[in-house]
Design goal:
Cation/H_exchanger_TM; mainly alpha; 5 helices; transmembrane helix
């Protein structure tokens, strides 16, 4: 798939994820986007060769910024225990993998 077609396809997936996020309120937009991206990679064999630092800069950082910016502070404070627990757990999972 050519790069322009892949970029247009990914932009369409972002629009679809935005529409789906209005109907599936319990799931964060970033998880919907990751699921759609995984589906695109598996079913449509979408492959974009990208260095990991560019991937973090172009995809992960904006998703994390958006979720962090729009998350309610009170709810974040109430969920500090599970958040810290998941962070520690994921560090160990990353080390094992």
């Amino acid at each position: 798939m050519h790069l322009v077609e892949a970029v247009l396809f990914l932009m369409a997936l972002v629009i679809v994820s935005n529409v789906l996020s209005h109907y599936i309120v319990a799931v964060p937009v970033s998880l919907i986007q990751v699921a759609l991206g995984l589906g695109a990679a598996l079913f449509f064999h979408l492959e974009i060769n990208l260095a990991t630092d560019w991937f973090m800069l172009l995809f992960i950082a904006p998703l994390l910024f958006y979720d962090g910016r729009n998350f309610p502070r009170r709810e974040l404070w109430e969920l500090r225990g599970p958040i810290i627990g998941n962070a520690i757990f994921l560090v160990f999972v990353t080390m094992l993998v």
